[in-house]
């Protein structure tokens, strides 16, 4: 019975979905729109659509911003700089504004480490949603800082080896910083994971609404095209290869901030 | 109400920004801009403004990008060493039609160069230093009072054109102390309300979402549907700015046979040299561009056609000279005084009026060649 209710929720269309003429600007089997859907549902449930400003990074994930009927900065300036831009907007508009950035792993964890880590360290009251799909999808599937060992990309045709370094665990890394009040990692491989991830996103945004500090959610995504896998196989790949490397769950959940 | 104080150039930057109702400063300490940084850290929070300690110049300009998107008047201050760092976002600001005031304190280059005064960033200030074709209005003050006044003008022009504006000064101007009259300047009719800013859909008067993009051209926006449509719009703006915003000050230009061209601190040196030259009976004049871009070249062209000779004075290798050459279109003899004519070889050396006078004398006798040998 409970499952039936869940299915019904998943099948509905969030009101925030922006009525644009073009179809979803993602490839077949891409999980990005699902992450966008979580965001839309959460924003609706928290009833913060009127105060939310979305800052898109540079990459496929940015299309999510185009599809949601919210005030949007897209792309939010240069590659990787979304947390800086969100900081600027938040400082001017103050507590009432809800700032959410949507970034990819290549955007947030490679070129964007400075703004991400520094905004987190400053405890900026913003929420960063990072979709980790292992590769630079927009540019054709090159190695990203998060790529798991052995994964074949266009720049590691033999698979990622030791000389290419190790994947970065963003959610755990950020959890170490004092300015971060919430850090979690979710996946979208099943209805259960979808609901868990949605809960994480909701909690992260709630932390910002409570004016506590920086919140971060990493979502394991896919890129069937760059991974050379069918959409269904890409889901299996996440479950078999990614989740063991990037465990799901909450890494930090601060209820109260003291100096 | 007017208030008269004794202030240094970097304080004038802060006072000017406050007079223009600047709401946010973002910056990262770099010599010689660090003095402004520490000064604003006291003054901005005291006056209810935001002061953001960014981790780098790149971060600072992107925080400014966000703040201006939300409608705040914002300023970023960089030294030459951070100037290159901000250029990517400068280009994005131009694409997204966002106003930001960038104050550049020039110091010696290239690379780490020197920590002292210089005027070596003329070309990237006046050309597009970031990716793509664009232009940015740049104002060059040459006194403490003018720094204060031009700061106010910079915020006005940035909002008027929805474009970044540069206030290009140098380490001598920001460190010298002069009388300063604090007075908010009235700058033309009030500007229209910013209806393009993001503030949350509910807070928009028409309830329609705002979409700010630095990818205009490939992402269709309310203003521009295609790439060429966007480029045409940008180009029209650049042309209109070029037509209407060129500013300069001239000194004894009417009967001048030698025209000195200089900005910033070198213009102050030239004023002294001008007096010395006139005392000797040399008919010299000075054209001081207040806007480095758009460059006020018409006045130079007119003088060139009347047979005047030109002497550019700048504390860099070359830069201003190029614009003078473009302005006179080969119609006049041009000589220059540059950083190699400083009084001493250390970083503390500067161009002195005597050197300028010496070159003027040579130029009059026709003893100098237009193209220098060697180098």
Mean pLDDT of chain B: 93
Number of domains of chain B: 2
Give the fraction of residues assigned to helices of chain A.
25-40%
- What CATH calls the topology of the largest domain in chain B is Rossmann fold
How many helix segments of chain A? 10
> Approximately how much beta-strand content do the residues of chain A carry?
15-25%
Helix and strand content put the structural class of chain A at alpha/beta
Helical proportion of chain B, percent range: 25-40%
Strand order of the largest sheet of chain A: 2-1-3-4-8-7-9
Instruction: Tell me the greatest interface.
Output: A-B, 35 and 42 residues
Shape assignment of chain B: globular
Tell me the domain tally of chain A.
1
How many β strands of chain B by DSSP?
15
Shape estimate of chain A: globular
Can you count the helices of chain B?
Answer: 13
The helix/strand order of chain B is: EHEHEHEHHEHEHEHEEHEEHEEHEHEH
Give the tally of β-strands of chain A.
Answer: 9
List its salient traits.
heterodimer; A: 259 residues; alpha/beta; Rossmann fold; seven-stranded mixed beta sheet; 40% helix; disordered N terminus; B: 375 residues; 2 domains; five-stranded mixed beta sheet
Structure notes:
The complex is a heterodimer of chains A (259) and B (375). Chain A has ten helices and nine strands. Chain A has 259 residues and is an alpha/beta fold. Chain A has a seven-stranded mixed β-sheet with strand order 2-1-3-4-8-7-9, sandwiched between helices. In chain A, helix 2 (32-46) crosses helix 8 (191-209) and helix 5 (105-111) packs across helix 6 (113-122). Chain B has 375 residues and is of the alpha/beta class. Chain B has two domains: 3-182, 3-Layer(aba) Sandwich (Rossmann fold), CATH 3.40.50; 249-365, 3-Layer(aba) Sandwich (Rossmann fold), CATH 3.40.50. The longest helix of chain B has 18 residues, at 144-161. The chains are: A alpha/beta (259), B alpha/beta (375). Chains A and B meet through strand 1, strand 2, helix 4 and helix 6 of A and helix 3, helix 5 and strand 9 of B.
């Amino acid at each position: 019975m409970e499952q039936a209710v869940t299915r019904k929720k998943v099948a509905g269309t969030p009101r925030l979905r922006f009525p644009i003429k073009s179809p979803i600007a993602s490839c077949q089997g891409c999980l990005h729109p699902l992450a966008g859907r979580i965001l839309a549902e959460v924003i609706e449930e928290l009833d913060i659509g009127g105060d939310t400003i979305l800052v898109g990074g540079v990459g496929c994930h940015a299309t999510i911003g185009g599809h949601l009927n919210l005030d949007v900065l897209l792309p939010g300036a240069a590659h990787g700089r979304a947390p800086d831009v969100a900081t600027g907007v938040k400082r001017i508009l103050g507590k009432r504004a809800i700032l959410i950035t949507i970034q990819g792993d290549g955007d947030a964890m490679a070129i964007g480490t400075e703004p991400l880590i520094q905004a987190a360290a400053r405890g900026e009251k913003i929420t960063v949603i990072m979709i980790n799909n292992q590769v630079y999808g927009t540019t054709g599937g090159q190695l990203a800082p998060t790529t798991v060992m052995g994964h074949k990309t266009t720049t590691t045709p033999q698979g990622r080896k030791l000389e290419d370094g190790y994947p970065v665990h963003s959610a755990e890394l950020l959890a170490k910083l004092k300015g971060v009040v919430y850090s979690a990692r979710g996946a979208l491989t099943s209805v259960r994971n979808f609901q868990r991830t949605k809960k994480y996103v909701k909690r992260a945004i709630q932390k910002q609404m409570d004016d506590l500090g920086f919140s971060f959610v990493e979502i394991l995504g896919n890129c069937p095209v760059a991974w050379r896998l069918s959409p269904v196989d890409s889901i299996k790949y996440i479950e078999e290869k990614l989740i063991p490397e990037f465990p799901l769950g909450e890494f930090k959940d601060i209820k109260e901030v003291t100096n | 109400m007017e208030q008269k104080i004794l202030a240094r150039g970097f304080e004038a930057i802060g006072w000017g920004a406050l007079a223009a109702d600047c709401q946010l400063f973002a910056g990262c300490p770099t010599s010689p801009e660090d003095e402004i940084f520490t000064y604003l850290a006291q003054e901005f929070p005291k006056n209810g403004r935001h002061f953001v300690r960014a981790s780098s110049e790149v971060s600072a300009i992107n925080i400014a990008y966000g703040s201006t998107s939300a409608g705040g008047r914002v300023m970023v201050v960089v030294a030459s060493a951070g100037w290159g760092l901000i250029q990517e976002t400068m280009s994005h600001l131009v694409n997204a039609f966002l106003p930001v005031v960038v104050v550049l304190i020039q110091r010696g280059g290239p690379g780490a160069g020197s920590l002292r005064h210089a005027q070596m960033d003329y070309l990237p200030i006046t050309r597009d230093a970031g990716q793509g074709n664009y232009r940015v209005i740049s104002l060059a003050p040459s006194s403490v009072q003018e720094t204060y006044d031009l700061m106010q003008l910079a915020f006005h022009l940035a909002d008027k054109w929805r474009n970044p504006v540069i206030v290009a000064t140098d380490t001598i101007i920001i460190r010298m102390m002069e009388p300063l009259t604090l007075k908010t300047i009235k700058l033309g009719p009030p500007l229209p309300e910013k209806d393009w800013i993001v503030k949350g859909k509910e807070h928009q008067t028409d309830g329609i979402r705002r979409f700010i993009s630095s990818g205009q051209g490939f992402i269709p926006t309310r203003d521009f549907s295609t790439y060429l449509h966007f480029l045409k719009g940008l180009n029209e703006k650049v042309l209109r700015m070029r037509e209407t915003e060129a500013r300069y000050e001239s000194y004894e230009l009417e009967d001048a046979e030698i025209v000195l061209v200089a900005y910033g601190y070198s213009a102050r040196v030239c004023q002294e040299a001008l007096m010395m030259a006139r005392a000797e009976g040399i008919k010299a004049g000075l054209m001081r561009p207040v806007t480095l871009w758009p460059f006020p070249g018409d006045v130079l062209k007119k003088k060139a056609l009347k047979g005047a000779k030109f002497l550019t004075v700048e504390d860099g290798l070359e830069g201003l000279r190029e614009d003078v050459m473009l302005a006179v279109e080969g119609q006049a003899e041009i000589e220059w005084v540059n950083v190699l004519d400083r009084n001493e070889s250390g970083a503390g050396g500067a161009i002195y009026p005597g050197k300028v006078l010496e070159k003027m004398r040579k130029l009059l006798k026709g003893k100098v060649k237009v193209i220098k040998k060697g180098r």
